[in-house]
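Ticket reopened. Same input as before:
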Amino acid sequence: MVDARPIANVIGALLIFLATMMLAPAVVDYLAGLPNYRDFLESALITGGVGLAMKIATANADLSRLNTRQAYLLTVMVWAGLPLFACLPFMLGAPGLGFTDGYFEAASGLTTTGSTVIVGLDALPPGMNLWRGMLNWIGGLGIAFVAMIFLPVMRVGGMQFFRTEGFDTLGKALPRATDIAWALLGVYAGLTALCILVYLGLGMTALDAVVNGAATIATGGFSPSDASLGKYPGAAEYAGAAFMLLGSFPYILYARMAVGQRGAMVWDAQVWALLRWTAYAVASVTLWRLLTSDMAAEQVFRETLFNLVSIITGTGFFSGTFAAWGGYSMAVALIVGLIGGCSGSSSGALSVFRVQVAWAAVQSQIARIHSPERIAPVRYAGRRVEDEVINALMLYVTGYILLLGVLTVAMSLVGVDMISALFGIWTSIGNIGYGYGPMLGDTGTFRDFPDAAKWLMTLTMLLGRLGLLAVLVVALPSFWRA
Amino acid sequence: MTDVRPVTYVIGLLVATMGVFMLFPLALDHAAGDPNWGAFLQASILCLVAGGAMALASANGAGGSMSLQQIFLLTTGVWVAMPAFGALPLILGAPGLSATDAMFEAVSGMTTTGTTVIVGIDALPMGANLWRGILQWLGGLGIVIVALLFLPVMKVGGMQFFRSEGFDTLGKVLPRALDISSALIQIYVWLTVACAMTYFALGMSGFDAVMHALTTVSTGGMSSYDASFGMFQGPLEYAAVAFMILGSLPFIRFVQLAQGIFLPIWRDPQVRAYLRWNLYAIIAVLLYEVLTHDMSISVALRESAFNIVSTFSGTGYSSVDLSGWGPFPFVILIVVGLIGGCTSSTGCSVKVFRYLILFEAIKVQIKRLHNPSSVNPLRYDGRTVGQDVLDSVIVFFTLFMLTFGLLAVGLSLTGLEFKTAVTAAWTSIANVGPVFGREVGPTGAVHGFPDSAKWMMMAGMLLGRLELLSVYVLFMRRFWQN
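Engineering reply: fixed in the latest deploy. New output:
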C-alpha cells in the first residue's frame, strides 16, 4: 500500500498556500467596497483550516523519501484536489455557480485551460476576476515545475529525454528541486511583471492588465472580459502574442540564460520549430482570409496572429471573429492546437518536442522500408534519441489521438453535437480554452453544455495537463498492489 | 535506375484483362437494346490495344522475380492505371462524365470506397451500373491479393507480422503466389455468388442482386439506386450485414477453412475483436436510438446493425438518412470508420490488428512506467511481437492520422466547410463512402465539390487503400537511387 502521509502533507501545505492567496482578492474587493470579500474570507478559512488539519495530522511524514509511486499520486491529487477548494469563492460568492460549474471553472483555471462557463465577466467583482487570473498563474507555475522536475523522472511520454545527469531518480532530483523552483519562480514572476507593465503601457486598466498579464504568461487564457483580449484591439494583441510565445518556451532555457548561457534560447530546436510552425500557420491563414474576405490586411493579420498564437500556445484568449473564419482556418487551428507549445513550459497538448521526434521516427521508418538493412538512428537536437524514449513518446502520441476519439464519443453520448464535442475535447486535452460549434451558442462559453459534458471536459483537462499517463497509471489496479 | 519493364508488363496485362471484363456490361446493354453498348466496345478496344501494346513492349524484360522496388511501383501503378482505363466507359458512354468526375468514380470504385459523383443513378443504363459494380469487385479482389502477398514482404504498417514461413523473401513468395491467388479468387467468387443468390432469394431483381453482391463482398458500397440500400429495407439488410462482415474478415482464414482447417478462424483474435466491437457499437447505438427516439426495437436494431456494419467494414451503403440520427450514433460511425476491417480482407482503414497491437503496447508502456525494471514482452495471438512490427504499426497509425488531418486541411482550403472537409477526408482515407455536410447533394453524391477537392479525395483514397507507406515510399529520392 502507498504511504499517503507525505502526499497529504504536501497537499495540506498547498492548501494553506491557496488560502493565503485568497486573501489578495479579499483585500481588493474590500477596498472596492464590495461585500464579496466576505466570501473570499470564508473560503480562505475553510481551505486553510482543512490544510492545517492535514498538515498537523501528517506531521510525522518523511518527505525526503518520496518514491515514484507517491510522486504520481501527489501530482494527480494536487490537480484534482486543489480545484475542490479553489472553486469555493465561485460558489459562495458573486457568480454563484453550482458545484459542477465551480469545479469546472477552477479546474480550467488551474490546468491553464481557460475555458469558462461564466457569462458576464465584465460585471463580476474585481476580486473574482483577480482570483481567476491567479488560478491561471498558480496552475501555470505548478505545471512548469512538474514538467521540469517530475515528468522527466516519471518517464512520461518520452520526457525522460530531458533527464539531465544527476537528475535521473527522484532521490537525486528533489534536493535540487528547491533551487530549480526558485529560479523558475524568478523567471516566471519576472516575465509576468514585464507583461503587466507592457499591458498597462498599452492602456489597459490596472485590473485588466494584472489578470490578463498573469493569464498570458501562464498560457491560461482567463480574461476579465467577455470579449477576452478583444476588448483591447490593436497593439495589445501584438504584445499578447509576443508574451504568450514567451510563456510557451521551455522555462529551463530562461534559467540557463540567467546563469550566463546566453545562446541557450537561440539554439534550441524546439523554440525554432515553434516559431517556424507558428509563422507558417499564421501566413497561410492570413493569405486565405485575405482572399476570402474583404477585411483590411492589417486587421486580418493581427487577428490571425493573435488567435493562432493563442491556440498553439494553449492560452485561449480570443479576439475578433474567430468563429466566422471559415473551414480552412478552422482546420489549421485544430491542427496547431494539437501540436501545442514546447515541452517544459506551461503550455499543453502534444508539445513541439514530441511532434518533432515523432516525425523523425516516421521518416526513419519509411527509410527502413525500402532499405531494411540500413539503420538510421533518430536524432534530436544533435543527440541520439534512444528507442525507449521513442517508444514511450510514440505511444503517448497514439494514446493522445485515441483518447481524443474516445472522449469525443463520450461527449456525444451525453448529447453534444459532433463539432462541439470534438472541439470541446480538443480544447480540454490540449488545455487551450477555445470552443467552437453550435452548442456554444452566442455566449462563446461552455455554460450551456450538459453537466455530464462539463465533468468529462474537466477530467480531460486534468488528463491533458498531467500528461495522460500519469493519471492512467494511478487508475491502474497494479499501481495499488505492492 | 529501376527496370520498369516487369511492372509495365503486369499492368499491361491487367489493363487488357479489364478490357475483357468490359464485355459483360457490353453484352448486357446490347441485350437490353441500349445504345450505350457502343461506349463499352470503344473502351474495351482501347483497353485491349493499350494494355496489349504495353505488355508486348515490355515482354522482354518480364519474367523472373521482382525486386522490392518493382513491387512498390507495381502496387501504386496498378491502382493509378486501372481506374484511368476503367473511367473510359463513363466518359464515352451514359453518364457522360468529365475526365475528373469519371476518374473520381473509377478511383472510388477500384479503392472500394463507394463515394459517387453521379446523380440519377436509377436512370443509368444497366451496363454502366454493372461496370461500377465490376470496378469495385476487381478492386476488392486486387487488394486482398496485395494484402496477402505483397504487403507482408513490403513490411508496411506491421504487416510483416503475417509473413508465414517460406514466405519471407520475394523469391519464395512468387512461385506460391499463383496457388494462393487462385484459392483466393475461388473463395471470392463463391462468396459473391452466394451473396447474389441470397439477395435474389430475398426478393431483389436478378440485376440488382448481382450488382449489389459485387459491391457487398468487395465492401465497396456503390449501388444502382440513388437511395442506396434504402431501396431494400427489411430482411435484405440483414443478409447484407452478414456478407459485409464476411468480406471484411481475413481471407486467409477462408482459404484455411476451405482446406478443412477450422481452428484458426475460431481462434483469430482479430476476428473475435472485430465481431465484438461491431456488437458493442450496434448495441450502443440501438440503446441510444430506443431511449432517445420513439422507435420500435426491431427497426432500431435493423438500422443500427446495417449502418454500423456498413461503415465498420468500409462498405458505405446507407439505408436511412444518417444525419438525423443524433450526435452519438454519428460520432460512433466516424469512429468505427477509423477502425475498419481485418487485415487481408477487402475492408479498409487502420484495421483491427493494428489497434490490438497498439492497445497491448500502451498497456505494456503504462506497466513499465511505475515498474521500470519489469520486462513485459508484447504478445499477440500467443506470439511475441517484434520491435520492428510495433514500430511500423505505430508509424502507420501516426501517418494515418496525420494524412487524415492534412487531407482535411487541404479539402477545407478548396472552400468546403469544416464538417464537409473532415468527413470527406475521413471517407477517402478510410475508403468508407458517405460524406456529410452542406455541400453534399441530397442523394449523397459529391458532384458539387470543386475539382481540386475531388482530386485530393482520389489521392486520399489511393493512399488509404494502399496502406499509405507503400505510396509514400515512391516519393523519397532515395527510393529511386541505388
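Chain A touches chain B through 56 residues (CB under 8 Å). Chain A has a mean pLDDT of 85. Please confirm and we'll close it.
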